[in-house]
Amino acid sequence: LEASPECAECKYLSFCGGGCRALSFKAYGSVLKKDNETCNFFRNGWLDLVIETLRRVRPQAKPKLPNDNLV
User: Fold this and answer.
1) pLDDT tens-digit map of 15-42
2) What single string gives the DSSP state of each residue in 16-66?
3) How far is CA 28 from CA 10, 47, 60, 70, in A?
4) Which of 4, 28, 51, 69 sits at 20 to 30 Å (Cα–Cα) from 15?
5) What separation, in Å, do the N-terminal and C-terminal C-alpha atoms of the chain show?
6) pTM of the full structure
């Protein structure tokens, strides 16, 4: 997946890892393709929303997230 230009440049790759292999196999017949459901989940802002909500609810918490510049 890192060889795929779309995945290699995505800021969410370290979180999604290309998504669910079972969903990839179901959709494309290959576990080597990216899982579009997981991709859409991250790219539509759900992770950003969760991080922002956690920061508002617990502002003193400093989560150690890879690529912490997401928000």
Assistant:
1) 888 788 898 889 888 888 888 888 888 8
2) HTTS-HHHHHHHHS-TTS--HHHHHHHHTTHHHHHHHHHHHH-TT-----T
3) 21, 25, 44, 29
4) 28
5) 24
6) 0.55
